[in-house]
Amino acid sequence: MAHIGSTLGIITLTFAGAHASHRTSAVWGAEGHRVVGHIAQELLTPAAKTAVTDLLEGSRLEDVANWADEIKSDSDYDWARPLHYINAPNGTDTFDLAEDCPGGSCVVGAIQRFSATLRDATALRSFRQEALKFLVHFVGDLHQPLHAGYAGDRGGNDITVHFFGQHRNLHQVWDTSILQRRISGGWSAYADSLVSTASDADVDYWQSITEPEDWANESLGLAIASAYPIPASHDLGADYYNRSLPVVERQLVAGGVRLAALLNGILLATPDPEPHNIAAAPEDSLTIATFNIQVFGKTKASKPEIMSTLASIIRQYDIVAVQEIKDSSEAVPAQFLTLINSADADYELLLSPRTGLQDDDAGSQEQYAYYYNTNAVESLGEGVLFDDSGTDHFQREPFLARFKAKGGSFSFVLAAIHTKPDAALEEIEALDDVVHWARTHFAGEDDFIVLGDYNASCTYASSYALDALSIRGSSYTWVIPDDADTNVNQRSQCAYDRIVLTAGANEDYAGHWGVDHAFTDAKVSDHWPVWAAFRRNADTGGL
User: Fold this and answer.
1) Of the ranges 233-237, 325-329, 393-397, which one carries the lowest mean pLDDT score?
2) Which residues 6+ apart lie within 8 Å of 49 measured at CB?
3) In which domain, by residue range, is 476 found?
4) Has residue 362 got a pLDDT over 70?
5) What is the b/e burial string over 451-465, where b = at least 16 CB atoms within 10 angstroms of the residue's CB?
6) Is the pTM of this model over 0.85?
7) How many domains does the chain have?
8) CA nearest to 339, candidates 369, 310, 377
9) Domain with 170 in it: what CATH number?
10) Which of 122-136, 269-283, 370-384 is least confident?
11) Does 173 lie in the same domain as 314?
12) Cα gap 495→499, rounded to integer Å
């Protein structure tokens, strides 16, 4: 690659002028974020540029580069405040994400999370658009060294200094003051000179480091070497400025180059526009889904529009495991079946007894249901709740039932689960016991599918904690990955709902799965359905 200046041609940036005020959370100030965004925009591949233009409805990356700061005045986005930075304990020189970014709530986790959302071609357009705007800003943030500084001084915010006689904190100096002193003329001329300084070796180096965690460690190293060493007087003058300015400028260009590389990779990574759409399931496969229909009782049943949406979702699949049925009269599940079949469908219902059979679980007596298309599936029995009397592992005992693909050889046992959120890890671990119990109860069956609302994500269960469980061992396959988003809430990306296969069921798995973004209204549910496709003819391995 030639120098960036010659590759991009003459880069001209037009700004309304430097802002007189500054925000301590705005890396480089508003103008610097636009520089990062503009450099990235000019380095996009044609395909990525087309995708960006489409998602941003004609805007460019620099136009949205400050959006993540602008929304800070909106209390609906308070959850995003910790995502602008990552802090390390004083005296350390590398980050430990498990300790320094709990639950992914830091700038590194944010970049990983929003990269996954942008990469998911089946995600709602509004989610992908917001993810893109967050990424433009957060990649810029992570390249400001003090956004990856020490926790003890909040990335320099608690270190008071005088910068050429002006009262500042150290974070503000690196956010805005150094660049404001450097740029005395127009931004266009500055931007042109800035990008032209990057060599082929610079660009190759920046592009070779692709992990946000590595960017964070790089910024922490620069903070330790360049930002934190200040005179005892805390008076910062020409010496400090002259050694800090090259670091600031280099990081601006590095941020732009890496943002472009990230977006080019993401926006070219999904040649199939909807790889996880139910329409992509192999022809004549058996589709099995799980759906937590939040507080599914008389109140929800009294709302025709919501019930119509729910019924249309069920009809997309051959069998659906439903959780969180809360109707003590047990009338709603049957009424729902009538609605499902009102559109010339032929579904049947297998309803569990009320759960919470142990005395300490009596406050959560929900029911599970299997709705299944009788043209595709036949039931092989009434189903049974897991016998939890000896161990009392579960607040809501799993509901197991055996089915068979009609006209095919694939038979299987489904085990539906809705874990108690605060005990999610303990209950997920106990699902291994459920499978062992099921092998005895359903003698001769080898295909077991444990599906439902695991609460297996975000604050309830991290990937690290899940990996320590028996049910994450080599004898199981987790179809829905940890970076999926099954949570309707736009403010978080959580893979709560899962489909887990034993080795026998995995042999019959057709390799297709998805998250069904069939609605955006949280009144329908706070969970999206998830599904997987299976071969009908298990013995031959064919479809």
Assistant:
1) 325-329
2) 41
3) 278-534
4) no
5) bbbbbbbbebbbeeb
6) no
7) 2
8) 310
9) 1.10.575.10
10) 269-283
11) no
12) 11
